[in-house]
Amino acid sequence: MIEGSLYPIMNYSAFQKYNANVKPDISQYMNIMAAETKKIPAEDGGLLIGYQEILLRARNQELFLELYPTSNRVKQVQNLLDSYSMYTFYGLNNTPLFDYETNKMVPNAQKGYTSVIQRLATVDSPFLDKLASFMDVVREAKYEKTTAVEAWLDINVPLPNDSSR
Questions:
Q1: Would you state the pLDDT for residue 5?
Q2: Could you name the domain of life of the organism this protein comes from (predicted)?
């Protein structure tokens, strides 16, 4: 039950035993979804997983889209990646990326993002490249949500309900 609504969560972990019997894209999709259902990423407007886990899941989703562009699961994985982009660059209402009072970036996000960017520096990833660019702007702003940071977000990761786009 989330936000007063009851809905089923499919146990994708149970399907992983069939990975050898399905096409590679479906196998990878089941792995992605097993991670989603073992530990849901968000609930009640708050993140339930760590910042590094957000990035690693997003990278797996991005890799799926690169490897299987004609899969019948592209739309579902793209929707997941869109959600993870919002988690990464904005946070959620109850766990914003920038503190509502101070406008400072959450210290755990600073550490987690920097760590993953360094650890995966040799990986070809548009998502991680975008994050590295974002972190450059945020670092220059002393980890505060300034107008420069907001402008970068508006251009590079516009909110879906932004009517000016």
A1: 64
A2: Bacteria
